[in-house]
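Exercise 7. Predict the joint structure of the components listed below.
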Amino acid sequence: MRPPLPLLLLGGGLVAALFCTDHPAVLAGGVVAALALLLAAPGSARTPILLGLLLAVPVALLNPFVAVEGDLVLVAGPSFPVLDLEVTLEELIYGAALGARLFAVTLLVVALLRLADADRLQARASRVAPRSALTVALAARLVPVLRADAAAIGEAARLRGVAPAGRSAGALLVPLAATSLERGLDQAEAMVARGYGAGHRTTLPERPLQPREWAASALGAATIPLAVALFAGLAPYAYYPRADPALDLAGVAAGAALAIAGIAGGLLLRPEAR
Amino acid sequence: MSVVARLERVTYRYPEASGDALADATLDVRAGELLVLAGPSGGGKSTVLRCLAGLVPSWHGGRFAGRVRAPERVGLLFQDPEAGGVHGDVLRDVAFGLENRGVPRDRLVPEARAALAAAGAAHLEGRRLPELSGGERQRVALAGVLALRPQLLLLDEPTAMVDDDAAEALLRHVRALTRDGTAVVVAEHRLDRVGHLADRLATVQDGRIAPRSPVAPRPPARPHGPPPAGPTVLAVRDLDVARGGRPVLRGASLDVGRGEVVAVMAPSGTGKSTLLRGLAGLEAPTAGRVLLGGEDVTDLPAQRRFPRLALVVQDPARHLLTERVRDEVAFGLEADDPAIASALAALDLDRHADRHPRDLSVGERERVVLAACLAARPQVLLLDEPTRGMDPARRAALAALLRGRTTLVATHDPEFAAAAADRVLRLVDGRLHPVAHPVRPDPAREVVPS
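Solution:
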């Protein structure tokens, strides 16, 4: 597990770059970077990819029906105040770009949470904002603990003759929420019982960053000026009324830089074999 | 011995509770003594510990009357060590309390290491909490409490998750702490485990505290002998089950006859739970067969083995499915099935039938899940450590309740096995072996020195 600094720099730089331009080459580079980091993180990549698609595909599909722009009409149809049944090629491309951005950000968040050392994140948070560390502690463990509780509740239902699928799976969300709340209260009580919040606290000395973590931090730091340059107009791109050519040098170079940052970051930050 | 902590006529009611958790409770705790609090589930033992730890009423709220005196440094070991963990890394988790106390940075690691050693858990440094067994987690939690050098150490059912040997080792560690004046209060049902180490016993029942006789009741032992002549209901043939790629069961075989109670005993981590999970359909075997009433059910999923086969898993209390005790017992059954009321009555839960199951104590919640399985009238009942959190009277009642029901029970509890089982099997290297001699309670461990 990795300390917060390289992950915050790398993740922050990549997300900022993704939101600083609409250039398809940059968005494609961001998707490659996110996939590389996800594959480097522990755990199966399948579920986050499915989650990313679940979020991204509806956005991509919806755009042609809410946007009223673009020159190249593919399907002619009437336009209503909130619904446009005329579909243009540009609307489709822009929808795909929006979906790609959402997909990349989803994968990045999952990858960074999986790579992060939750303990160090919590320690860091308790130094900056002691009261918020409780929230951080609970949030950092939310995904694995929820997964384990969901599995246990699913098993409890199966052992009582109910397979958790469809409506019955939905019904199990209530006990899952109750279990999570109860667990959160128990953990908060345990923290209070061990003196949390009682006064001045010290923190355990942290292990220094390893060379590879310094390298990933530098890589992350380098993506931040790139994001600033993109925001300032390094690779401008317009989808409407006609989509610009996507293979301009600045855009492709920026996209390639993001992809390389993600791949190199993944290689540097992947967990070491124990 | 001087009094280090005192409850004086404490009456307390949790927020939104209908009754008092403590009623005019008075207790003195003396320096250097090991005081054991016994009593039925839900009787108020955990609340007494929370009062002494300062969590009641300040953390929980509610209505409080009376006075509590406690020393500055109090350590509380919670019933569920999983709930007490704050960090993932063992050393960091142990150091958490030291950080909160503002111990200088250069002393944090040495003091955390010393606490790990004091709890017999030095070998766990560098491990992650989620990787540890229940007993190991309990030791790390104890180290986290010991790191604070408490003048008063409070332990809430510290041996519930561990086998006899681990419990004995843990309690001897705790007993040794009293020599330097630390006062220790242990809430524990298993007087057979802790009674012989105690200086004093008290009972907490219906929120009141009373001194207790030094002899723990014992569930009636049951003569062991050959299985009843009933036909075989559950047959397991050469079962292999792996977990996490590691083979756990290797050719396990057994027969359970109609009306027979068979106990499986083995140390923690040797595969008892895996055996029951495999039989219930939660783990897919890599080889072997499971026959239920002569029918091969090896490939049936768990939900289709129910209700013929019902499993009460270890620690079911957190994963309850409904918001009312009666609904929990009725889950998966017809709502007007008379077996629901019978099961509630059999497990003394009828007075709780309309309560939210999460308002009950851990022991009571486990009885709710057991009642749900009994209400389904299974051909075979599978129980994984069913006596956790149960007081001796309830254990004896459960042993009596199982009589005549076809049951396979995995347990660490030799007294319960002696009282409940017709046969005892031991799981060794993934195979089941009959125990040559019946397991008997050790009478020497029942008498408490005065």
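Discussion. The radius of gyration of chain A is 22 Å.
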